[in-house]
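Lay summary. Proteins are chains of building blocks that fold into shapes, and those shapes determine what they do. In this project we predict the shape from the chain. Here is one chain we studied, written as its sequence of building blocks.
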Amino acid sequence: MRIERIDRIGLELGTQSKSYLHVEEDDPLSAVAELRRTRTMSRDAWQIRIETQMRLSCTRDVFLLQGSLRAWEGANEVCRREWDRAIARDFL
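And here is the predicted shape, written in a compact code that computers can read:
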């Protein structure tokens, strides 16, 4: 995780990202993109963390989009959202 510090206000910002992109040769419908990111902020005893994930793939007829977001304040999870959508390709 990359950490940056803003000394003037005592804030630490952290970022970590990972991506995975894959497609089989001669099979465009096998394409997959996955992204994960973690962001943190802290000052003294205050700490928050946000984790996001996204996965995009497709079939002949639809794009498949899955995503999630989770947020913590200290050790307590304060938010969780998940999405799972099929989006018509409309000849794309």
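What the prediction tells us: Residues 2-88 form one domain.
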